[in-house]
Design a protein that fits this description.
Elements lengths: L7 H4 L5 H14 L2 H14 L7 H6 L1 H5 L9 H9 L2 E7 L7 H19 L6 E4 L7 H8 L6 H24 L2 E4 L4 H18 L6 E6 L5 H15 L3 E6 L4 H10 L10 H16 L5 E6 L3 H13 L9 E6 L4 H9 L4 E7 L6 H10 L6 H12 L1
Parallel strand pairs: 1-2, 1-8, 2-3, 3-4, 4-5, 5-6, 6-7, 7-8
Helix pairs in contact: 2-17, 3-16, 7-9, 8-10, 11-13, 13-14
The chain binds flavin-adenine dinucleotide (FAD).
């Protein structure tokens, strides 16, 4: 079955002409690398000052890429997506906090999201980032296997308890939780923690999803080993597959430290590694679940082909396709229309807190990557 990805009628049916026009103007704007470069510098410089840039962001990037400032404010988006058979992944996107009171507040928010999700068929997943629950620098120390002080050991224990409470509640309420992947230099302790929780909580159904960034040269081997462990210890290896969001940062850091880059040498290698991971997971369908987080048309079609070759029902809940809100609607809505499980990441939170996320979306959509051109062409066709 070929998915008609270029059917823009289906892709944009949930948007009014005015909303499409706004999206068009926005993608035109972020299509300018100079505007995005200077805009990002400005926002990064003034993010912690009282300069009131919030109204401008709220009317532009935030409107396109976020569901609202609170989980309840996202309900309109959730309902709209559900009308077209698309689920929501509630994403409380706070990043970069350093303070235990913020981590506790984030845990509270995530627990309340789980309750919300359990009351709605349209929210099959929630998601979190470890750096929303623990200091980045502590993860870095754990990754380097540097000895922790007594206070740090207690801090790490508290962080693990936050994660345990979230996953326990998710299991109890039968809501699935995705754990985002982050920078390579903090990822080892996250891998260990998530693997442990998968082993405990994924015995009969996929509750916890690990995220693998297939732009990393070590991830295909990692996945093979993870599948072996899942087979050996009888748990479901639930994986969110992405290409990876931090390529520039990773390369720059490796270069500055005189280390080999952890990222594959080119885009073709990343594409091949992503598709190879899909194939590995499909070949282990008895104890695997896939959440394909991608805006790539070929990989999405490849997963469709693999599923159909194996005789997997498109509605099998172990298989999900997902895109970010405001991007690649042509994939989400056409896949949903053809009967496949799809869900949009719907980030929410106070505008200022979401600024780093919004800067990443603007950069990703700048002319360098060609993504904004893709979006523009589709919107032009749809209006
Ligand atoms: C639902 C969802 C959840 C996500 N969660 C995460 C997450 O937890 N962690 C995370 O890091 N990212 C996450 N991402 C972002 C993701 O990793 C990608 O950055 C983004 O989706 C673009 O990749 P793509 O597969 O959509 O498509 P494409 O546009 O086909 O690929 C672009 C990607 O290819 C890779 N790439 C580009 N050029 C090169 C090159 N020269 N050499 C090597 N590789 C290259 C990069 O990863 C780049 O982002 C998520 C994305 C989605 C849709």
């Amino acid at each position: 079955m070929k998915i008609p990805f270029h059917n823009t009628e289906t892709a944009f049916q949930y948007k009014s002409t005015w909303e499409l026009t706004q999206a068009y103007l926005l993608f035109k704007g972020v299509g300018s690398p100079a505007l995005v470069h200077w805009g990002a510098r400005f926002l990064n410089a003034f993010i912690h000052t009282p300069i009131p840039f919030d109204p401008l962001l709220r009317a532009t990037l935030f409107k396109q890429f976020c569901g609202g400032e609170t989980a309840h404010a996202c309900s309109l988006t959730v309902r709209k997506l559900a009308e077209y058979g698309v689920g929501t992944v509630l994403d409380y996107s706070i990043e970069g906090a350093q303070d235990e009171t913020v981590f506790d507040a984030t845990e509270k928010e995530l627990l309340s999201n789980l309750t919300l999700a359990s009351q709605s068929k349209s929210i099959p997943f929630t998601v979190f980032k470890m750096t929303g629950l623990v200091r980045f620098t502590l993860l870095e120390k754990l990754h380097q296997k540097t000895a922790l002080t007594e206070a740090e050991t207690k801090e790490w224990h508290r962080a693990q308890e936050r994660v345990r409470r979230i996953i326990e509640k998710a299991a109890e309420l039968k809501v699935r939780v995705l754990v985002d992947a982050e920078e390579t230099w903090i990822q080892d302790p996250i891998d260990t923690l998530v693997e442990g929780f998968m082993k405990t909580f994924n015995q009969t159904q996929p509750t916890v999803y690990h995220t693998l960034q297939m732009y990393r040269s070590d991830r295909l081997d990692y996945l093979k080993k993870l599948l072996q462990k899942a087979q050996r210890d009888s748990f479901i290896c639930a994986v969110k597959l992405v290409r990876g969001a931090y390529m520039e940062k990773e390369r720059k850091r490796a270069e500055s430290k005189g280390m080999p880059s952890p990222i594959l040498p080119n885009k073709q290698a990343t594409d091949a590694s992503y598709d190879a991971a899909l194939k590995l997971l499909i070949d282990s369908t008895e104890n695997a679940a896939i959440f394909a987080g991608t805006h790539n048309e070929q990989s999405s079609q490849f997963l469709v082909d693999l599923m159909l070759e194996k005789g997997i029902d498109p509605k099998d809940l172990r298989f999900y396709f997902s895109q970010l809100l405001g991007m690649s609607d042509h994939l989400t809505f056409n896949l949903a229309q053809c009967g496949f499980n799809t869900a949009k990441y719907v980030p929410y939170g106070p505008v200022r807190e979401l600024t780093p996320y919004l800067i990443r979306r603007a950069q990703e959509n700048s002319a360098i990557s060609g993504q904004s051109l893709r979006e523009l062409e589709l919107i032009e066709k749809g209006t």
